[in-house]
Every structure is written in C-alpha cells, then in structure tokens.
Amino acid sequence: MVADIDLSAATFLLGPEQTFSPDQEKLAQAVMSFVRQHLPLADHAVFVITGDAGTGKSAVLAHLFASLQTQARSGSGALAGTQNTLLVNHQEMLKIYQEVAGANPVLRKKDFMKPTPFINAAHRSGSLTDVTFVDEGHLLLTEPDRYNRFDQTNQLAEIIRASRVTVLVFDPHQVLKLKSYWDWPRLRTVLAPYPHTLFDLDTQFRVHSQAAVQSWINAFTAGTIAPWPVHPGYDLRVFADGTPLYQRIEQQDARYGLARVLATADFPFTVFGPTKWYVTAGTLRLPWDKISMTATPWAQRPETLHEVGSIYTIQGFDLNYAGIILGPSVGYDPATRQVTVDVTRYQDNEAFKKRSDLPDLTAARAQIMRNAINVLCKRGRHGLYLYAVDPQLRAALLAAQAKGEDNGH
C-alpha cells in the first residue's frame, strides 16, 4: 500500500486516513478472485471497472496493483513471480504513479508505462504479461497514431492480446478525442472474443455533496439547467465576471489548498513553443497551462494557481475547489431552454481530427465537448464555481441561482 505517502495533494489515490467503501471493497475482492481464476488459464480474460468521474475507480486500481505486486515479489503464494504492469495514457497521472513507486519498496517505476511502449515491447518480445492494469481506459487509441508511434488499430485489443488478464477502468463519458473515441458498442466488440466481466461503481467520492448537486451537474452536462440544488456543505456558485471567480479561488487556495481555475478548450493555444496563450473571462485574463517536464503534476505546483488548467492537465485529479470558465462554444438557447455546444468554436483541433469510421462526426464531436464539461465540473471535492463567456448562458445560470436563493436553497 501507499499509506506512508502524503496523498492529500490532488491525487486520485487513497490518503493515509481513508478506507474503502463497501462497494470498493467488494470490487477489490471481485478483481482478485477474477485474477486468480483466469491467470492459470491464459485465456486473455478482461475485468472492466466502470463508473462516473469521481467514483474511486483509480483508487481501487492503485490499491489492487500494489497488493498484486506485493504478492508477486513475496516469493510465495499463487501470484508469486507474476509479471504485472499498470498502463495509463495520461502523462500527469503517470507522474503520480511513478512518484508513488519511488516511495514504495514493493513498486518500481518501470511497473508503470504508457500503452504504446508496452504494446511495441510486447510485439518485439512475443511474451505475455500476466496481469495488465489499465487506468483511464477510455483514453486508449482506437485508430493508428503516427505521432504516438502506434501502428495498429486499437490499443485495448493489442493490450488484451499481450496479457493473460487485463483489468480495465472505463468511462465513455470521459472520452476527449476522436482518435480515442469509445462507446459501449465499440467496447463490446473488442471484449466479445474473451471471457470478461463488468463491475460498476456508482458511489460518488470526489464531489462531497448531496445527490442533488451531482444530479444538477449531470443535467447541465446533458444540456439542461435544472432547478438550483440544495447543497449544504458544498459551495456551488455562478459568477457574473471571471475576476471575482478567480479571487474566490485564490481565497480558497489560501485557506484549504488545491483550488484552481480550469476552462473548456475554447481559447487558442499550442502545446509546445515559447508563445504564451491566454484565457479571457470578462475582465479576467490568465495564461493557459503549459506542458511541464517536471515530475510534479500540474495541480500540485503552487505557481499554477495563476494559470488556467485544461482537461488534459486535470483529468483524473482531485481539487478542493474548481473554478470553471465555460468558453464561447458553450451557449444557451432560450427558446428550447437547452445548453448548447458549437463544434465550430472548439479550439482543440487535436481532439477533432477526422476519422472515416464514425458515421456522424458532428454528433461525436458534440459528445466529446459535453464529456469535457463533465470532466471539468467534477473536479472539485467541496465547491464548483462557474463563469460562462456566452451572455445568454451566463444570464440563465445566474437566473437559476437567484431563483434557488429566493426559494431558500
């Protein structure tokens, strides 16, 4: 386990004082039973862990992997000597896993990899890994990608073929790019040739609030501004300008830590190069985050309080308070009372790279944009602050908040 490490800073792992919920404990037992049952059969079996953002999927996965490696390296028992790997196609999360490995005598940094190096190494050696854990499996590529040196057509299919048992975390509502486009039919097609089982986690851990707030976020992501929820203990607010939102984030960071501003990908940016790109929200103007070669994830670095984080730097991580800037692509139609997304105004060109096997690219792009909103709005444990660039959406949100306050919420 990783109990000796301070995991309070934005990680998705369990802290020293935290324990599993009954559902998480049941999941852990089910995974280990599945591994013990299928590992001797070498039948490429797959255990799929599903659940919404913030339900503790990664926490269980990390715990299970540490437990498995302890048994693999103990020299006794049925799992002794097994060769196991944890994969994640997310650089910031990989940093956390490697940080934990550096402080845990059971784990090694080489235990954690990105999918493409793992797949390419398996093709060269022809050998099978015993158990392969895959975190954020919805980020796996579903088409060739020359930039990532992936030449096959589906990373999950390749991982399963290279593993005796695969344990996969999967949430189609967190798919953020067309080149890693997943839905349930696509997953079922990949799983069909192999023994597999699914386990759904449905208890929310990250968003510390009543179910009403979680339901409000889900409705908003789907396109509806529901009545303002009752939320004692959870700070849900809409701001008429970006500057007071940022000031509130600064105050919360000073008091509690782990408060950051985030935004939808609606403002120009490039990943590499010296140019500094900015996010504007009314009177607020802050720079986008930049790729960092340091071992410390974005959300843990103090200087990032003065930046705006993206879905790529914050996905999978916890904050105490999240201030979300909804950019120009997120609008509102007063006639239908629907929150809209405009795919032509989304600035993440990498997410929208065209592919020929999707029958409705516009619908797929719109779903990716809604997924991004879902990811951003479920970062804050104790509070969510919203500012909408679109004036009609901003007015609708402020009106819903005012009505809720008038009703005593």
Automatic annotation (TrEMBL):
Signal peptide feature range: none
Gene3D superfamilies reported in the protein's UniProt record: P-loop containing nucleotide triphosphate hydrolases
Organism listed in the record: Schleiferilactobacillus shenzhenensis LY-73
Superkingdom assignment: Bacteria
Residue span(s) of domain Schlafen group 3-like DNA/RNA helicase: 45-390
Name the record gives this protein: Schlafen group 3-like DNA/RNA helicase domain-containing protein
